[in-house]
Amino acid sequence: MTRKQNIYETLRTLCSKVSLEDLEQGFSGFDTNQISKIAGIIRNNTSRELNTLVSEKRVIKVKGHPVYFFDKARLERLLGRNIIRESLEVSSIRGLIHRELDSVRSGRENQDIFDQIIGSKMSLDVPIKQAKAAIFYPPRGLHTLLIGPTGSGKTTFAESMYQYALESGTLRKDANFIIFNCAEYADNPQLILAQLFGHVKGAFTGANQDNPGLIEKANGGILLLDEVHRLSPEGQEMLFLLIDKNKYRRVGETGSTRNADVLLIAATTEDVESVLLKTFLRRIPMVIKLPSLPERSLAERYELISNFFAVQSEIIKAPIRVYKDVLRALLLYDCKGNIGQLKSDIQLICARGFLEYKTQGKVFIEIDIPLIPEHVYKGLLYRQEKRDEIFELLENDSRIYYEFPQNRWNKNVFGDNASDKVYAELTAKFNLYTKRGYSQENIKQRMNQVIEKYLKQLLKKVDIHEKLSENEKLFKVVSPRVYSVIEQVLASASNMLKKKISKKVVIALAMHINALPHRKAENSNYTKESLNKIAINNPEEYKVAKVIRQELEQALTMEIPEEEEGFIAMFLYAIDAEEMNQKVGIVIMAHGASTASSIAEVCNVLLSTNHCKAIDMALDDKIEDVLERAVELVRKADQGKGVLLLVDMGSLAAFGKIIEERTGIPIKTIQMVSTPIALAAARKSLISDMTLAQLTEDLRDTVPNLAAALTEEPEMPNPGITAKMIVTTCMTSEGTAVKLAGLITDSIPSLKEHHITVRPMTMQKIKSLTRAALDNIFLFAGSLNPHITGIPYISTDEIVLGNGLERISAMIEGRRFDAARRRLIPNLTMEIIEDSLSFLNPQKAYTVLEKALQDIVGMLGMEETDHLKTAFLMHCTCMIERVIKKESLPYQDIATRIQENMDIYQALKTSLQVVEDTFGMIIPDTEIGYLIDMIDTDRCTSK
Questions:
Q1: pLDDT tens digits, residue range 375-420?
Q2: b vs e for 41-69, b when ≥16 Cβ sit within 10 Å of the residue's Cβ?
Q3: The CATH fold of domain 475-573
Q4: What CATH superfamily is the domain 114-291?
Q5: For the chain, what are the domain ranges?
Q6: pTM (2 decimals)?
Q7: What is the dihedral of CA 808, 812, 817, 818, to 10 degrees?
């Protein structure tokens, strides 16, 4: 920060605490001594820089003894308007305020409604002159056609014409302004005509009485026909009589006509020559074309943006602080929906900022890059195209953010109360969830659902469809602001090193920097000795790396350890041979129809590569077949440095040793693969000098809890076992497991042919089974996965809600399951519950338990999966009957279990209160113990 910036920031901070009332009561600002002392700069230099800031029209100088200074931007925010003066040297702040307010009042007295529209003296100058001529034209004005793209402000412009007609006395004060959207009834032309002209009794089926139309209601005023191109030719022709002679007939009326003095304003987004009758167009003498947003200057767009933020600030009743990069993006992005979309995007951004404001207890709403939609963020890519205009508006100002207070003089752009409603709803939900004791993270998740619903409403309003761009996935794992900064510093590095830097390099470094705050400092692999070695061997890269680190710290306002210079230097050094050098291969393998391929796809898309390979192991795939596929894929993936296998569990973890023996290719295996682990592995594997051993070690250091997954490969299961049993599981082996066993037995006839029995069993019992006993188990099915190597598992929700029964049948019969033959059983959960209960009302139990589960997952910040919901409902219905009959199950060492999972226990006790109240009982802790097991298991598997 320069000396001048330091002094300005000191003054700005001091002035931020001053109110308008303080200034009106005589407060004049801060003298040089005060500013000098706080800034830590000697008085002479402080005085010199302050006078420079006055000449730059950024600081107000109050003459006298002593001389006082005040931040001009702060005073503008307090007044709600820009201060435009030749000189900012004044005799008193209070006098300046009064002159500015008097100027506003006198200016407003001499203004008409059109002067309050942004762009009235620029892009809208000609349209406004046309509109005034249309209103004043004798005897009753000229019928007018407004042409402009979606969101260009046609409706607002028509409303302004109406207000101008009232102000000028052309229309009576009680004249109506009626809006009719022709598109709403486009599929029923008869109904359009009835709405416009009215109808007589019996005119058509359902016309049971006479009805006046909108023309009659608009008599003496203005009728706006929005989207007039959707009006049928017949409808257009019926208007001829009204336009020519001020007469019309109701639908079904013959003979006599009615009189109506109506000024028509028609609006359309289409090419009028192709969608409207020529005879209709000839009767509309005034055609006004409104400009699109790209046709308006950036200065106008800036004023629109400022106004929209000020309006939102007024609605929220809190100041909004917008960072400069956000303003740049809003000024430059491709806003296809014009002013309407610009407003909607700002409303959405403010709603997201409001969420942070409420959940984090901030004193102002902070709008930074992470809050803006990705299509808005793209605007930062176009900054060079309009560099001069942007410099004039923003770059000539050292502020890093702009504040928008509540503004009493908002100009006329668009008006609606959609924002009011969403802020009211967010506030109400925040208060409700806070009262219920939900965590801040959970409150944020729930309130985000409100914002997503609001987004859809906004998109629908401006007729813009949300599209996922190529960076949509990237910005879910990398902050857009981090990516933007990395992009800029690497562009500079490219020039300094005379190297071309690809997008994948930008992404990889962005992901690395983005993860810095979450990594422990002691995990660094670079010591002082190794840094010196890098500096000697790669002096150019190391020099640039130091510059990059400093620029990143300043731009991202975060501390980056000095050791990171070593990583960045090696990163830059590796660019030269990136495409030619050999890399460690990555192969991802997981159970499920698309688990591995989905993870690989995410990695490849985010890193702009095709380096990650994948094998999906269906539940009915034979182990030998999957192993053969894995051998072939490893051969293809190997580039001479070996291959890292990322697997989920079970038999796949044993493949590495076998493949290495068969092929001679070095293999390392990591279990419990997830998208973050795969991303980290893929990103590091693309570094040209990375080895398989180093990659494995780096992952152990940088990915939390990975050490546990770097274990010895397990023994391969015996593929030639003769399975004779399906085991159903649940917490207790009663209720759910029993009913599930009955359902499988009744639904799969081929069980008898293959002599397979179905038996419920507790987890404790399963864990005690010998290997020989396990060899007789064909598969596990139920609410708990025992995770036994080589034995497939199908969850309760797959059986109840999906295709689990067909999967089991296919496995028994030795055929591949065809997903296209999937059979849904939506009501099976309720059927099983009904069969499980002896006396309880199943529907009542279902409803109450469903509500309780929603509260539980809400309080714990979990996702309500089908698996959890099915298991919970089926277990708890049986539990209720057990408790009522006083047959509650025991639970060994329940006190310890509760102590270890106090958060789950408290959530269960609170949420199950409604169940206890409904059925007049108290659920004992022993029964809650089994629910703790269920929730804990689901939470662990979801991580």
A1: 887 787 666 667 667 777 776 566 677 887 654 444 444 444 455 5
A2: beeeebbebbbebbeeebbbbbeeeebbb
A3: PTS-regulatory domain, PRD (1.10.1790)
A4: P-loop containing nucleotide triphosphate hydrolases (3.40.50.300)
A5: 3-109, 114-291, 312-467, 475-573, 585-709, 725-826, 829-942
A6: 0.47
A7: -100
